[in-house]
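Exercise 7 asks you to align residues with tokens for two separate proteins.
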Amino acid sequence: MATIKKFEDIVSWQKAREMNKIVGKMIDSGKFGKSYKLIDQIESSAGSIMDNIAEGFERGGNREFLQFLYISKGSCGEFRSQLYRAMDRGYLIQTEFDMLYKLALDIIVLLQKLIDYLDKSEMKGPKYKSRQDK
């Protein structure tokens, strides 16, 4: 795996950003009506996916990064659950649900691959670099 220099290079973060754009456009178009609580929850969980990837990466240690990747994965599960609520209330049609659900699953697969890689890695992260070089 190539060394990632910034969180924006992480494919799961890029996909989560793409998903946020799609959900944001749906919300802005009025697709969710006045269901403000669901809007807040679905927007928060979608945002949490990409935000936790970014925050974990910026902490500079692989163990902390792993913890935040797991949180991000959990937020992805929460997002998928909220998709069901949105579809059940008629805010999403089946094709919209399927597209967002698939995107969320793709993100989970990418997150798990990164988790597996980091879990096996001997590197501890940039904040430990000076200790690793000794």
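Second protein for Exercise 7:
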Amino acid sequence: MIVTVTLNPAVDHTLDLERFVPGDTYSVRESRIDPGGKGINVSRVLRVLNSEGS
């Protein structure tokens, strides 16, 4: 087992737009909130690499 310590986690907020035009008003099709930051991203990659080897 590998344990990572994340001192500065972040929150990634992703918005799915139909199109992007600078200065325009946007209608969001989908919104997603995920944990993020370097430590959390490293943990995700390690989990994927470990599950592929199993």
